[in-house]
Amino acid sequence: MPCMMVQTQALGQVKGKTFSCFLHQHQQTFLNQLREITGINDIQVLQQALKDSNGNLELAVAFLTAKNAKVPQLEEATYYQTALPGNDRYISVGSQADTNVIDLTGDDKDDLQRAIALSLEESNRAFRETGITDEEQAISRVLEASIAENKASLKRTHPEVWSDSPNPYDRKRQDNCPVGLKNVGNTCWFSAVIQSLFNLLEFRRLVLNFNPPANAQDLPRNQKEHRNLPFMRELRYLFALLVGSKRKYVDPSRAVEILKDAFKSNDSQQQDVSEFTHKLLDWLEDAFQIKAEEERDGEKPKNPMVELFYGRFLAVGVLEGKKFENTEMFGQYPLQVNGFKDLHECLEAAMIEGEIESLHSENSAKSGQEHWFTELPPVLTFELSRFEFNQALGRPEKIHNKLEFPPILYLDRYMHKNREITRIKRDEIKRLKEYLTVLQQRLERYLSYGSGPKRFPLVDVLQYALEFASSKPVCTSPVDDLGASAPASGTLLAQTLPSTVEQQGPSSSDVPSTSPVQRSVIHKPFTQSRIPPDLPMHPAPRHITEEELSVLEGCLHRWRTEVENDTRDLQESISRIHRTIELMYSDKTMVQVPYRLHAVLVHEGQANAGHYWAYIYDHHQNRWMKYNDISVTKSTWEELERDSFGGYRNASAYCLMYINDKEQYLIQEEFNKETGQILVGMDTLPSDLRDYVKEDNKRFEKELEEWDAELAQKAQQEKLLSQIPRAPAPSPAPVQAGEPEYLEQPSRTDISKHLKEDSVQAINKALAEQEDRGPEAIMDTAIKLEYTRLLKLAQEDPPPECDYRLRHAIVYFIQNQAPKKIIERTLLEQFGDHNLSFDERCRNIMKVAQAKLEMIKPDEVNMEEYERWHQDYRNFRETTMFLMVGLEFFQKKSYMEALLYLIYAYQNNKELLSKGPYRGHDEELISHYRRECLLKLNEHAAALFESGDDQEVNNGLIIMNELIVPCLPLLLVDEMEEKDIVAVEDMRNRWCSYLGQEMEPNLQEKLTDFLPKLLDCSTEIKGFNDPPKLPSYSTHELCERYARIMLSLSRTPADGR
Q1: Which residues are in coiled coils (predicted)?
Q2: What are phi and psi of 404, to 5 degrees?
Q3: What's the rounded Cα separation, in Å, for the pair 20 and 1029?
Q4: Average of pLDDT values for 259-268?
Q5: Which of 262, 375, 686, 990 is deepest in the core (most CB within 10 A)?
Q6: Which one, of 984, 953, 952, 955, lies nearest residue 967 by Cα?
Q7: Residues 24, 278, 371, 611: which is the catalytic one?
Q8: Sign of the C-alpha dihedral, residues 479, 484, 489, 492?
Q9: Neighbours of 790 (CB within 10 A)
Q10: What is the dihedral of CA 205, 207, 211, 215, to 10 degrees?
Q11: Is 282 among the domain residues?
């Protein structure tokens, strides 16, 4: 569907073989785009560039921006549309330089007949040869790029993050969550467009209920029909899977393959996504047209695609004093973004071209035109042009300006039926804006008063003058007032000319004297320069009488009050005018045509590369959903604003889809005609599609069953292996059942050795206090002493390098408010440890503790909770080791080794902190070094890429693909971490900066292949390698190494922290 598609009639402009068909459909839109991108306003030059490039917009830009571009010296002419009697079509009035151009502006009927004949001849010749136009072939570029990427990805060895999870449960649809679309290689644009259309229930019904023509066996009659019907079949299958699949996401490769096979092109350059949207709807329109023509009964066939997406507007204008009026069909409506702050400003600019004052006056030579909607489509799509050509850099750039758009858009002011009242309101707004400009200029004079380079608010100037006048008068000069404190003459001169003395070098007169007088005037900046106590802090008048002061204060007070009142009046007037302009179209007659925002298609990246996703409104749940390839998540209007308005990061909307809010059939669910109940899921599908989805679901269920069987088989094998008898290893004593593994395992001396020493010390203290008591009393005293010691450690506020939680689990439990029963049992476990059996006294206490453990009833201590607390402590120690090892590698500048440790430290720590603030370590610290690690690696990979050496370039891309790209979602998932988001933007911008640079073709190919992965904005956390193995540390070693690394960090300034 072209942006500005005129009605399909024979009359057209002829500008060359391949350009004629293209011109009448796309010329005005492409001319506007070229004018915006290149800044060239000469229509003849723009038309010639389009012709020379055969309609290729990017090639036309290259022609126009080349240094040696030749600008034809022709008479100035402007392209406007004018009317022919009895015809809706526009004809071009402009360049006469091309000999193939037939002038249709005159009265010569032969010229008109020759134009019609030549246009038909060329259109038929192109259609006979290929069945499709050159314009249609252009879209195959983006499709071939996507398929080539998909095939290449099968040959390359990608890290796990880019492949499907081997576990089918990771790919299983959750409840009734919407189904995503897999990115099969540079096809995020396909997903965004298809999901937006699929979620239009009326469009979905049209596609699902499409039946191929009954005489399909007689087809194809041409390539168009050969292409459209298979594509519709695959689109129906794809839509059916999106309705009823049990998979989290489905693969659209077959639909993309058909689109690719329909066109043959050697050019794999990616085109504008909006072009794909045009052509997709064109293909759908053609497919429904075939069906409509078959079913017509002598009446003109109605095409549902045209009914849904096409509208009409009336162009009213004046060309060189002659009025014209024409009707034109449109599909997607293009809007310029640059220079406008909201959607209404864009629309106002698009609906008015040139000088429109002449429309209401006679005998005017000015030219201009207005557009008025006569018929709006149920689905209204706006294309936002966010690209311009940077003449200085010689490349296209994306416009990141902020552009606001409302969730409800009232279009009454643009309707033809309201044009008289709209013109009145536009004139009123113009008058108000002119008055507003005058008021703002007057206000600016009050707020920036003065004639010099520095200006201040006038009310402050008057206040300062009042403060000066009211200060206590002084009778002496500020210099004379220094009195005896001033340096002697000559010394003052010497102090004011230090540079001269230094340049000339010492002389006999410069040698300081040893006399007391000379020494007394040596400059002392912190003593002699101090202001004497009696000197006023502010300048003050020398002489002022009471009468003068009274008059001056009265004037200044009165003037200040007047200025304050004037300023307030101006600000209130400006606010009232703004409010009046905002409410200009809010009366009841101008809010009768509401359109609700249905979908926003977003692009993040630069002009040459980026990633696409969509925000789509769920009209039944009244919430926004974010469709980002395989990821479909709940969203909010606030998130949509941030990503779509622009001005924040590199993301902004490039397409807005509004639907008529009064046409409820667009989003209305289907009902069972017999029961009246709403049809959902598989019940909405025709029988053939229901069977298709059931077959696919059976295949997926088989995958799940095979996975379950494989896991069961592995579990059985492990069970059999565990039953094989093994030679017993020498061990002092069996470990007590249920004992936490980090407390003691006889073959290890890590934690239990440390706890043994603590236990013995507590027992010795208890024996010293109660030597004559029995083992039970001594044990109770020892436990109390140990608990008191640990409680004191838990209550201290030690420096970062001294973390008492690493010394004992009880400290960790106390700080995190573990239940008393958990702490008591843990202490009994400590004193019941078998390592205390080395002497009689400790052995007796050990036995008492073990006996008490056995006496604890199951309902007294929740063992599941007990195990959870000890598991959390194990996780805390493991997180500490990940952090410690990662920081040690970081300090050695081994960033690749450090990254994985820091990633797991951050993820584990985040999980711990979700349970309580003292469960883990400082999140900002880990986040900082994880971020720094990624930035260092990104710089290293970019340097390798810049070297140009094949091996170095490949190594750099391996670092990016296998280390950095998989980590980006981890930085983007928490939107409160502004530093992480900025770091991601810095890394992306570094690689996007290469787009405009000259480089070898193989480097350009690798960069083009890699950038979509880097710019993928999905925040879905995907698979990583297994966590790195950790060394075994005793508690003493762990505390010592942790203290050492934290002390070294405190001595090393961390950038950005």
Answers
A1: 690-717
A2: -90, 150
A3: 68
A4: 49
A5: 262
A6: 984
A7: 611
A8: negative
A9: 22
A10: 150
A11: no
Higher-confidence residue of 625 and 769: namely 625
Distances (CA, A) of 833 to 744, 760, 765, 838: 8, 11, 18, 11
Average pLDDT value for residue range 139-156: 42
* Ramachandran angles phi, psi of 330, nearest 5°: -145, 155
> Three-class SS of residue 328?
strand
Buried b (16+ CB within 10 A) or exposed e, 126-136: beeebbbbbbb
CB 421 within 8 A of CB 589: yes
For residue 34, what is the domain's CATH number? 1.10.8.10
Residue 688, classified by CB atoms within 10 Å of its CB into exposed (0-12), middle (13-18) or buried (19+), is: exposed
30 assigned to some structural domain: yes
834 catalytic? Reply is no
pTM: 0.60
d(CA 827, CA 815): 16
Active site residue 578: no
The answer to whether position 393 is within a domain reads no
Query: CB of 329 within 8 A of CB of 310?
Result: yes
Contact 574, 365 (CB under 8 A): no
For residue 757, pLDDT over 60 is answered with yes
Greater confidence, 527 or 293? Answer: 293
Count the residues in the chain. Answer: 1057
Q: Which residue has the tokens 């100037």?
A: 461
Indicate the SS3 state at residue 229. helix
Taking the CB of residue 627, how many other CB atoms lie within 10 A of it? 27
Query: For residue 211, what is the DSSP state?
Result: -
3-state secondary structure labels for all residues of 856-918 = CCCCCCCHHHHHHHHHHHHHHHHHHHHHHHHHHHHHCCCHHHHHHHHHHHHHHHHHHHCCCCC
> Alpha carbon of 302 to those of 207, 380, 666, 793: distances in Å?
16, 19, 18, 82
Name 617's bridge partners.
624
Q: What is the mean pLDDT of residues 976-985?
A: 80
- Give the largest Cα separation in the chain, rounded: 131
Specify which of 51-60, 579-588, 712-721 reaches the highest per-range mean pLDDT: 579-588
Is 607 in a helix, a strand, or coil?
coil
Active-site option among 24, 26, 598, 603: 603
Strands 408-410 and 379-385: unpaired
**Phi/psi at 611 (nearest 5 deg)?**
-130, 145
Q: Provide the domain count of the chain.
A: 1
- Cα distance between the two ends of the chain: 53
Domain of residue 47 covers 22-64
- The per-residue pLDDT for 262 is 53
What is the SS3 assignment for 133-191? CHHHHHCHHHHHHHHHHHHHHHHCCCCHHHCCCCCHHHHECCCCCCCEECCCCCCHHHH
- The predicted-structure confidence for 908-917, as pLDDT tens digits, reads as follows 999 999 999 8
Task: For residue 854, give the H/E element and its range.
Answer: helix 840-855
333-336/379-385 β-pairing? parallel
Q: Which pLDDT value is given to residue 682?
A: 86
Phi, psi of 447 (to 5 degrees): -85, -25
Q: Which residues share a beta bridge with 353?
A: 369
Residues 788, 798: contact at Cβ < 8 Å?
A: no
616-631 pLDDT per residue, tens = 999 988 999 999 888 8
Tell me, yes or no, whether 52 lies in a domain. yes
Active-site option among 3, 188, 992, 1039 = 188
pLDDT band at 998 (very low <50, low <70, confident <90, very high): confident
* Exposed e or buried b per residue across 593-619, where buried means at least 16 C-beta atoms within 10 angstroms of its C-beta: bebbbbbbbbbbbbbbbbbbbbbbbeb
Task: Count other C-beta atoms under 10 Å from residue 722's C-beta.
Answer: 8
Cα–Cα distance list, 461 to 469, 554, 565, 750 (Å): 12, 15, 15, 74
Q: Which helix (H) or strand (E) holds 634?
A: strand 631-635
Contact 634, 446 (CB under 8 A): no
